[in-house]
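Title: Comparing notes on inverse folding

I've been comparing how different people in this forum approach sequence design from structure. To keep things fair, I'm posting one structure and asking everyone to reply with a full sequence. Here's the target:
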């Protein structure tokens, strides 16, 4: 079957790795770069460009350049997160005819899954160039707190890219797998994963080659992008005040300031202060041109982003509470994601967990390495080796009941794979059908949670209320993907579904799309 690869499909950057001769090898592009921006740029004839080439287009054609597509994948149109992305993005975000989320670029519509498929093809080609052979199998990582819709859409993206997705693997679990590779130690580890778009914390018990996730928590709209937007908002206010021109609604200006904020963040990782200069930031209708120039030091930057840092520790405390552990029971804290290179993050993590974080792993590559290890494990079962992974479901699963409540069948942080069954009774006299609406989330009210899917079990015996019982069974597989079955206990009628993603493109139809014409 060839070599199976591991892909860290990131919000800001992606990375690809494989196990060769028993050791992980992170693949680089032709210029020797081991991570690639998760950016897709259109405007090059019929093809799109991905990665570093696409990043160069971001500054002069932001409306044709799609960034942070991972923040949109599997999302509902109209959600709070999507509305925030609309306000921050230079490209268009709209709703398709079937209610699915779509990106509009140069008059064409793409789903977030299609954009992610472009990135996956780019990573696949980098691996094939390094290996000298075709690659058809991969383990793809997702944030631990991704819901079922987001996981399904990620799997669809892999299929569009011509990859058999061996497993959808949680990013913190992948990082722990890479960290514990061949160590043979018994320890409790907290994986603090602050990526470009999401934050996850997972608490794991590692014993030799046995990796057990005890608890996980996360925020799928908290990451390095938010730090950049926080600084960009400050730059925007400074520019409007100094120039006397209000450009708060100008998306091109906002994108240029976001890029400047990211450069400032990187510079402040090693220096105490940085001068920020954006030439020709804005040109007015009468031809006046305005530059932007300011100086930022670490203390000022810390004031801007401290609320975001505190939000990560609120999530950490949630995971520790679910694991019934204290920070002092954690042996090591692993840092994952490029944002964790910033001194403020490392100092804050050390203060919260009362120990210096472990910096022996590369935060940009560790997730891809873990994915590659798992890919090797899944394709070399006959060799009898490999690690054992026990992961958990990040969010509770349930069904809507009378009154709009959500009845939980599988609680968050339940080990997967798992299944659970509950019996429900008809709520009305002579009821002949029942709608099974499946939700994911922690609220007692169904509408406050994520609707994953629904179906109708028809043909029930018309009996008085409460006399017909319907047995509803949930099953979650190793990928965290949900299967639901409902059975009528009187007539034996059954209806079963696999919750389908909202990626918006039928996977079969997507195979015909020209993903192979990407210029890399």
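Reply #1:
Here's my take.
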């Amino acid at each position: 079957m060839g070599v199976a690869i591991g892909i860290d499909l990131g919000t800001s950057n992606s990375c690809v790795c494989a196990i060769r001769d028993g050791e992980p090898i992170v693949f680089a592009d032709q210029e020797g770069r081991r991570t690639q921006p998760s950016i897709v740029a259109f405007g090059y004839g019929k093809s799109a460009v991905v990665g570093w080439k696409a990043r160069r287009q971001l500054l002069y054609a932001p409306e044709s350049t799609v960034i942070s597509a991972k923040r949109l994948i599997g999302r509902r149109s109209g959600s709070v997160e999507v509305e925030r992305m609309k306000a921050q993005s230079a490209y268009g975000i709209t709703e398709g005819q079937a209610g699915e989320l779509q990106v509009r670029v140069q008059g064409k519509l793409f789903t977030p899954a299609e954009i992610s498929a472009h990135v996956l093809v780019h990573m696949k080609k980098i691996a094939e160039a390094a290996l000298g052979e075709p690659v058809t199998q991969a383990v793809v990582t997702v944030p631990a707190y991704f819901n079922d819709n987001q996981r399904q859409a990620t799997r669809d993206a892999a299929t569009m890219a011509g990859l058999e997705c061996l497993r959808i693997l949680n990013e913190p679990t992948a990082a722990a797998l890479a960290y514990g590779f061949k160590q043979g130690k018994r320890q409790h580890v907290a994986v603090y994963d602050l990526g470009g778009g999401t934050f996850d914390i997972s608490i794991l018990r590692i014993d030799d080659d046995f990796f057990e996730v005890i608890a996980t928590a996360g925020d799928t709209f908290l990451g390095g992008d938010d730090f950049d937007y926080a600084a960009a908002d400050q730059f925007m206010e400074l520019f409007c005040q100094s120039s006397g021109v209000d450009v708060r609604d100008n998306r091109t200006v906002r994108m240029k300031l976001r890029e400047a904020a990211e450069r400032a963040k990187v510079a402040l990782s090693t220096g105490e202060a940085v001068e920020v200069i954006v030439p020709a930031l804005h040109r007015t209708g009468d031809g006046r041109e305005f530059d932007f120039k300011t100086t930022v030091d670490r203390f000022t930057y810390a004031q801007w982003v401290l609320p975001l840092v505190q939000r990560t520790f609120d999530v950490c405390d949630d995971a520790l509470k679910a694991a019934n552990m204290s920070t002092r029971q954690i042996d090591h804290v692993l840092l994952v994601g490029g944002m964790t290179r910033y001194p403020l993050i490392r100092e804050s993590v050390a203060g919260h967990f009362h120990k210096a974080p472990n910096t022996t792993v590369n935060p940009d590559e560790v997730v891809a390495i873990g994915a590659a290890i798992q890919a090797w494990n899944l394709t070399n079962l006959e060799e009898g080796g490999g690690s054992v992974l026990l992961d958990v479901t990040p969010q509770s699963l349930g069904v809507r009941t009378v009154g709009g409540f959500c009845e939980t069948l599988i609680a968050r942080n339940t080990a997967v794979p798992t299944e659970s069954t509950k019996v429900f009774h008809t709520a009305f006299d002579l009821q002949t059908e029942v709608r099974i609406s499946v939700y994911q989330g922690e609220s007692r009210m169904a509408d406050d949670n994520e609707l994953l899917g629904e179906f109708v079990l028809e043909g029930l015996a018309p009996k008085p209320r409460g006399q017909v019982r319907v047995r509803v069974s949930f099953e979650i597989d190793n990928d965290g993907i949900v299967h639901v079955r409902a059975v009528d206990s009187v007539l034996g009628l059954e209806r079963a579904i696999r919750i389908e993603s909202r990626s918006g493109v039928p996977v079969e139809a997507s195979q015909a799309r020209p993903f192979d014409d990407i210029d890399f």
